[in-house]
Specification:
This protein is α/β, with parallel strands linked by helices. The chain contains ten helices and seven strands. The chain has a single domain, classed as Rossmann fold.
């Protein structure tokens, strides 16, 4: 308790899922919560429960991000923690691709369990439109940049702060049915390291969380391929949103005061690195 006492924390995409769990955990640790989301109704509902504030914000629109951060700056005067969590799975407007993904996922799982080999194929890249690609990059990578840029207009002056970017294990391993998502997440991890070097002299820390396979809406379309993922994970299960939230609490707190430019990856051993 009180690890984030009196800290001002802004979470993008905070209305549900991972973002909502992070908001809850920050609140329990004493932070004042600001939730930004395109779904204002859900954001406001959660903010009210946490005695916080909600703003409607599309992170892919730089002017909208600028206006919201300007309002926050005038109201709070300071910003201690930014969590760049807003994201999409890339299939929101492509039910055809999602249906095909589920079909192939299930087929590959069946093939693998019966023969130990996979003979069916994804055609995601060749079926992807320019808009599919640009939207993914706009929300994940551009959104992380836009929000970080505006947050720094506050943090640079106070010479302190913690920025937490949401990556993914797919940003390093790649995902066979999500090339645009993998590319965006890889970009976020590079951006994290670059800004960590830039901002260290101002005592602003920048880190990333790269979740493995977590039980959320975004992994619900994996179908029977979950069996393959679990078999390749030493802990033999998917994670839960709390696993990510606790990592965020650590990176936001003074417990990680000598940690910057790092990627923490709660993934059950699915990916192991340094």
């Amino acid at each position: 308790m009180d690890r984030l006492k009196n800290k001002i924390a802004l979470i993008t995409g905070g209305a549900r899922g991972l973002g909502a769990s992070i908001a809850h955990h920050f609140y329990k640790e004493g932070a004042e919560i600001i939730i930004c989301d395109t779904n204002f109704a859900d954001a406001l509902n959660l903010a009210n429960k946490l005695n916080g504030t909600a703003y409607k914000m599309d992170v892919s629109k730089s002017s909208e991000v600028r206006d919201v951060f300007k309002t926050i700056s005038l109201k709070y005067k300071t910003l201690d923690i930014l969590v760049n969590n807003a994201g999409i799975n890339g299939f929101e407007n492509r039910q055809d691709l999602l249906d095909e993904r589920i079909k192939i996922n299930n087929l590959q799982s069946k093939e693998f369990s019966q023969t130990g080999k996979i003979n069916s194929h994804f055609d995601v890249t060749v079926s992807m439109t320019d808009d599919d690609w640009h939207k993914m990059i706009a929300v994940h990578l551009n959104g992380t940049f836009f929000c970080t840029r505006e947050a720094l207009k506050i943090m640079n002056n106070q010479e302190s702060g913690s920025i937490i970017n949401m990556g993914s294990v797919l940003g390093t391993t790649g995902g066979p049915s999500s090339p645009h998502y993998s590319a965006a997440k890889a970009g976020i991890l590079g951006f994290t390291r670059a800004t960590a070097r830039e901002l260290a002299s101002r005592n602003i820390r920048v880190n990333a969380i790269a979740p493995g396979y977590i039980d959320t809406d975004m992994t619900s379309s994996l179908g029977d391929v979950k069996k393959i993922v679990k078999s390749a994970t030493p802990m033999k299960r998917f994670g839960v949103v709390e696993d990510i939230a606790w990592a965020a609490v650590y990176l936001a707190s003074q417990e990680s005061k000598f940690v910057t430019g790092q990627t923490i990856s709660p993934n059950g051993g699915f990916v192991m690195s340094q």
